[in-house]
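Researcher: Quick test of sequence recovery. Tokens follow.
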């Protein structure tokens, strides 16, 4: 099984465990804030399932209907996760508003806080772990899942603060107020996930440092060429698409030009994991005297 898929299944298990723990915390206390925390964690289960599906689909090889592969499935999953985060935040805001209008006392706060803290610690450790791995593996769905877990951690911290303040001050309405504030933070997190996923779906270029690496490799690994221009890049999951025009002398043979292209492709694929390179050879009269100068 692919390592990214193992992490995704691990997230699903952790999500179910955290969900069960948070339900116990809510059942013990009857706290609206802890109920909101439990409700938000239900979305964790959904996002973990979405991540598993996306990773499995994106790993499928190209086929006649999808000649460039299925890499963007991860971004579609990330969009779904973002939408689910936003829905969760709106549900929590609704519950917070109802609780603000009809505040209720909290029962057994010490036990509820202890149980909730255990769930929060588990969520934080796993969330940070899969974000780190997801970035290294360039898995958009794992990163989105991890960020949602960290948003859940922020929810839980806010809830814990709210419950403590309610107990210390005796002001029951603070329970709902804190839940509402944390819901706004979750809403912002959801919009952030949507924004990043949308950029990738719109064929956003690779980061500046990766682009600089591409320029350097092209400039130094094709001494027989004259220049390279019209460089275009985009990334989709683990794949990085690179295409450009390479200008060579008109008298260069096809076999020699092909050898130059092979050398460039090998260098780019070695430096950039998942690179898929397309090179269009042009004669010297097509030189634009701009772009990448070969040296």
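Model:
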């Amino acid at each position: 099984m692919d390592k990214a898929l193992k992490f995704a299944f691990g997230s699903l298990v952790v999500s179910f465990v955290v969900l069960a723990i948070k339900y116990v915390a809510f059942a013990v206390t009857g706290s609206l804030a802890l109920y909101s925390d439990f409700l938000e964690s239900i979305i964790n289960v959904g996002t973990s399932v979405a991540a598993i599906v996306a990773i499995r689909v994106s790993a499928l090889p190209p086929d006649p209907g999808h000649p460039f592969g299925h890499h963007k499935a991860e971004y579609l999953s990330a969009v779904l996760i973002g939408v689910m985060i936003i829905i969760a935040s709106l549900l929590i805001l609704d519950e917070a508003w109802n609780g603000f209008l009809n505040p209720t006392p909290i029962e057994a706060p010490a036990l509820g806080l202890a149980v909730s803290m255990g769930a929060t610690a588990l969520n934080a450790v796993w969330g940070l772990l899969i974000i780190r791995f997801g970035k290294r593996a360039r898995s958009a769905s794992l990163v989105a899942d991890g960020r949602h877990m960290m948003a859940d951690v922020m929810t839980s911290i806010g809830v814990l603060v709210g419950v403590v303040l309610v107990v210390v001050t005796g002001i029951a309405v603070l329970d709902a107020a804190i839940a509402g504030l944390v819901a706004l933070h979750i809403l912002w997190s959801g919009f952030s996930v949507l924004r990043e996923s949308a950029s990738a779906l719109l064929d956003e270029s690779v980061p500046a440092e990766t682009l600089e690496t591409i320029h350097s490799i092209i400039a130094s690994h094709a001494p027989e060429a004259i220049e390279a221009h019209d460089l275009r890049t985009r990334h989709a999951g683990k794949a990085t698409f690179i295409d450009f025009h390479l200008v060579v002398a008109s008298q260069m043979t096809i076999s020699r030009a092909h050898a130059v292209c092979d050398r460039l492709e090998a260098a780019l694929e070695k430096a950039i994991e998942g690179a898929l390179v397309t090179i269009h050879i042009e004669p010297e009269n097509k030189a634009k005297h701009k772009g990448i100068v070969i040296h």
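The chain has two domains: 3-201, 208-293.
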